[in-house]
Structure formats: C-alpha cells, structure tokens
Amino acid sequence: MCMVGWEGTIALENGRTAGPEDTLARSALGDQAAFAEIVRQHQGMVFSLALHFLRDRALAEELAQEVFLNLHQNLSAIKSPAHLTFWLRKVTCHRSIDLTRRQKVRPQVSLEDVPEPAASSVENDFMLSETLRRVVNTLPEKARMVVILRYQEDLDPAEIAKVLDMPVNTVKSHLRRSLVMLREKLSRQLGEVQV
Amino acid sequence: MSRLDDELKRAFARTEPPGDFAASLLAKINERAAPRPALWQRLAALFEMPRARFVMATAALLIIIGAAIFSQMRESLPETPEQASSAAPGPEQVKSDPKAPQTGLQAGQTPTLARPEQEQRIKKIKPRRFVKGGALARRHVPKRAVEPEVSPEAEAAKARVLFALQIASSTLKEAQRVIQEDSQNTNTVPTRDR
C-alpha cells in the first residue's frame, strides 16, 4: 500500500483509491498508515491553532502531539471526517486555553502596552502580520481564540460557538469588540492604511 | 471585506509543523502500545537488582529489627534505682498497711521504716570497697551501684537481640565473601571472553 500526496486519498494495492471515510474506518481498526494519513491531513490545522494561540513553537508542537495521541485513543468515537475535523478543532482550542491558564504562558498585556511598530512596517507585510499577531495576543483567551478561529479556519460565528461551547451572540460580541480594538490600535499607528 | 480582514487572514494563515512531526507521533504511539508487564513480572523485577544492593538491604533490615528489639528491651527495664525502689510500696504505705509484716523491733534498736527485704537491698547499695578518706571517698561511689532485677522477659529479649545481631553479622560476612569471589572471578576472566 502506498499513500499519494493529495488530501484524504490513499492509493490501495489494487488501484482503488480510499476516501476520507475509508481512511477513518481503517485507522479505527488499527491501520497505522491510515492514521498517519489523517495526521498529515490535519497537522497543519492543529499545529497552527496551537501556535497562533500560544506563540511558542515547542509548546505548540507538544500540544499538537498530545491532541493526536488523544485522537488515536478515541478513534472509535469519531463518526465522520467532518466530526473528526470538529473534534480536532475543539480539543485543540480547549487544551490551548487550559494550558495558557495553567502555565500563564502569555501574561496578559494591556493593548496600550504593545510597542509601537516602526513606520516602515506598513510596506512590510511580514512586519504588519507580526504586529497583528502581537495585538491579537493581548486579547483575553476566549476572544483571542474566536479571532484565530475566524481568520485561520474561516469559520462563521455559529461554528465558532459550537467549537468553543459558547452562545453565538457572545462570539459575535467578542469578534466585534476585538475588531474595534484592532482598528483603533492600527489606525493610530498605521494611519495611512484603510482599516 | 476590509483590508484588516485580509491582513488578519494573512497573519493567521496555517503553518505546517516540522517535517518529523508525524514520524515522532507514530513512534510515541508505538511506544505506548508496547505491552505493559504483568503485576507478577513487576514484582519479580524488584528482586532482580544487583546482588550487593540486595544484601545491603537485607542487612539494613536486620539491623533495624535488632534495634527495635533492643529498644523494647530497654523500655522493659527500670531506668534508675529511684524508679526501681518506687515500684515497691513506700514507708508511709508500710506503716498504714495493717497486713504488712511486723518488724519485731527490739528495745534500743534503731527504728527503720523499710521492710526487711528492702533493708537487704539497701545493704547491697553500700560501697563494698573501703577507700582511704572516709566520707570523701564515698562520694566517688558510682551512682548506679544497684543491680536492677532483670525480668525473664528482658532476658529473653536480650537473647533475641543477640541472635538477630549474629544473623546480621553472618549475613554481612557471607555477602562480603560472595562479592569478593565475584570480583576475583571478574578479574580472572580473559579480556576476549568478557
């Protein structure tokens, strides 16, 4: 059996291809190759959620591994590929929030205390992205996770509410307030950019 | 969609983990999937430690048992002569006790408050050696001149302690001998056979 590069498909020995459902079913039966394929499909999402929230590569990698180990133990409870994605998002978000609360990984800094970016950063996309990540990182844990799920995973408020176990209106208010704060902060510093 | 939304999407784009992420994860899973030894195997493993350590642990255990028995024996003995004498009834008690034996004091004899057996014990306390200097010399009489009566239980406990110490010393000697033999055997084995 060999695995092909495109997502969710494994080429079997008889030429037939296996879809995400087959991959999930076979990994639940103990097929390591199928589980490895699932990991490759979702590792980017899990690792990025943890990395953007924790802002620490080593911690994010460790957390992502724990999430996949947990998945391996609970594969029989996963019903579909969509459920798998939802389960991974939910476990990663909650574990990241728990870890931050437990270890105080990122002490909360006031938005006003974030250092002013240099003027030349407007032209530099990398610097602007880094500034945005830093400003988002000053938000409270739940609001930060809402912003990350909204812009990394492109989820709508209803989906975010399901992942984070909170009312949709709370998600919307988190998003609205976070964006207002971000606009204020950035328009003060990057006046020429239409934010 | 505003420019801010675009910038946020760019800032929070997905990032791939290091290349060996999946491999190290699968290695961890295989490591966890290894069968855990049974309870009896883990218990047996406790006795597979190096011989010297096992012998030392046994010797330490024997010494602890010996010390416990010795302390028990000491507690059963009276610590000072005062305590020993306090165990017997006091002079006032003798006086008031109507069942106490009569001393049969004759006229002109110095009255004492002690019973005959207590007098015998007091005689024993007197220094037997006569040292020049009289009263001064008596000051040098050792305080613990009374030989306390040793109960049979204490004698038995003492014998047990001595027996336990003998066992401990013989075990230690045996251990030393075994270790020496081992080290000699190790030294005599040719290098290519090791």
Q: Largest interface, and how many residues on either side? A: A-B, 39 and 24 residues
The number of helical runs of chain B is: 9
| Record field, number of beta strands of chain B | 0
| Rg from Cα of chain B | 39 Å
Radius of gyration of chain A: 19 Å
Record field, number of beta strands of chain A: 3
Main β-sheet of chain B: number of strands, strand sense, barrel status?
none
SSE order of chain B, one letter for each helix or strand: HHHHHHHHH
Protein structure class of chain A: mainly alpha
Strand order of the largest sheet of chain A: 1-2-3
How much β-strand is present in the residues of chain A? Answer: under 5%
Query: Helix content range of the residues of chain B, please?
Result: 55-70%
Secondary-structure element series of chain A: EEEHHHHHHHH
Q: Give the terminus-to-terminus CA distance of chain A.
A: 51 Å
Which shape of chain B, going by the Cα principal axes? elongated
Shape of chain A: elongated
| Relative strand content of chain B | under 5%
- How far apart the termini of chain B lie comes to 76 Å
Task: Note down, in words, how this protein is organized.
The complex is a heterodimer of chains A (195) and B (194). Chain A has 195 residues and is mainly alpha-helical. Chain A contains eight helices and three strands. A three-stranded antiparallel sheet of chain A has the order 1-2-3. In chain A, a hairpin with a 6-residue loop joins strand 1 (2-3) and strand 2. Mean pLDDT of chain A is 82; it is low at 1-16. Chain B is mostly helical and 194 residues long. Chain B contains nine helices and no strands. Chain B is elongated, with a radius of gyration of 39 Å. The chains are: A mainly alpha (195), B mainly alpha (194). At the A-B interface, helix 2, helix 3, helix 5, helix 6 and helix 8 of A face helix 1 and helix 2 of B.
Reconstruct the topology from this structure.
The complex is a heterodimer of chains A (195) and B (194).
Chain A: E1 2-3, E2 10-11, E3 17-18, H1 20-28, H2 32-54, H3 57-73, H4 81-103, H5 125-137, H6 141-152, H7 157-164, H8 168-189
Antiparallel strand pairs in A: 1-2, 2-3
Chain B: H1 3-11, H2 21-33, H3 39-46, H4 51-76, H5 81-86, H6 91-96, H7 116-125, H8 135-139, H9 152-188
Helix pairs in contact in B: 4-9
